[in-house]
Amino acid sequence: MSRTVLTVVAAAAVALFTQGAFAQASSPSRAEVKAETKAAEKAKQLAPAGEAADIKADKADKASKSTMTRDERKSATKTAAKSKQLTPAGEGPGNMTSGEKGGTSTLTKAERKAQTKAEAKSKQLTPAGEAENPVGMKK
């Protein structure tokens, strides 16, 4: 009886050790991984530290950089402010949507506020979390 138990234990031990050896044989060594990382670093293909940033988005941002310096932008903004060409905060169309993709609001901030108050009084607003198709969610 003890002989069969020893045989089973020995077989289990051999199975465990061979599995580990095969797993290590298929993965690259630490030196190989370091060499690959150095090569990727030299080619500037590594993502920045921290949040995993999309490298393609970074390259797209670099391609769309402004041609004006910071001082040029500041002076252009000051000139536009003096000649009252700037839209007051909250009054511009910006990225506001009227529920439909691509549609921008033509209402001012005060008009939107009054409209929302009227809808709230007449209980026409959808309670939070109960919209059939929330803005930004795929159908």
Describe the structure.
The chain is an all-alpha fold. The chain has a domain of 46 residues. The chain has five helices and no strands. It is elongated and about 95 Å long. About 4% of the residues have low confidence.
What are the defining features of this structure?
single chain; 0% strand; mainly alpha; 139 residues; 53% helix
How large is the share of residues in beta strands?
under 5%
Low-confidence stretches: 97-102
Oligomer: single chain
Total E-strand runs? 0
**Classification by helices and strands:** mainly alpha
Computed Rg: 32 Å
Helix content: 40-55%
Q: How far is the N terminus from the C terminus?
A: 66 Å
Give the helix tally.
5
N-to-C series of helices and strands: HHHHH
Mean pLDDT: 76
Task: Please summarize the sheet with the most strands.
Answer: none
Shape: elongated
